[in-house]
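Lab notebook, bench 4. Still working through the backlog of constructs that have no structural model yet. Next entry is a single chain of 249 residues. Request: give me the structure tokens for it.
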Amino acid sequence: MRNLKLILAYDGSEFSGWQVQPDAATIQGMLASAIGRLTGEKVLPQGSGRTDAGVHALAQVATFSTASPIPVENFVKALNHVLPASIRVLQAEEAPAGFHARKSARAKTYRYRIFRGAICPPFLPRYVWHYPFPLDEEAMEKAAGFVVGEHDFTSFAAADPERGRDEEVSNLRTILVSRWVREGEEFVYSVRGSGFLHHMVRNLVGTFLLVGKGTLKPEDVARILGAQDRSVAGATAPASGLYLVNVEY
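Model written out:
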């Protein structure tokens, strides 16, 4: 058996997230079907993480085992011929037998895009959160720094019904980079960490927005972290603005 590693980009707008679901279009389901058409095998590719419905990826990583003799360089062209245009395989390569897209990951980077202009162009709403109302962006930049380091992120974690018994139960995560940057009419949050909990990035963004509105002070983020209580943090930001940017191994 060969262990193949794929790097994917996708527009998550029309999909019910990564994980395969009955009677719903998902990235994992589409990819499994495409691989099956090529190899004749029934496989379930494993992703680096389960992106939610509406969330996008610039470089999602997936692995699967196959006995197919198809040369690895042919998988990119063949899979892209079968997959919908909203899912693209960017790269395919042979991986060591022990390599696993999720279990082998050491760090991930996400970006969240907020469009600040008064009028959002009609082709952008699927890919940003349009928020044209007043925000103290400087305060949000300051607040972002409070989550850097190792913390228990229970306050920013949604209940995850898919979390298996064999998975890590601790909500401790290490954030290496957390910052907001102005890019034209967009205010963009970038976060790099050892791993992320269910809805964690979107819950962080929703909380930082409360800082921008003046409902919270930047230092309140440290208090919210310490509370380890989801109810004290902000609402979950819309999925449309979130992107999985990179996975490190």
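Notes after review: The chain has a mean pLDDT of 95. The longest strand covers residues 172-183. Flag for follow-up if needed.
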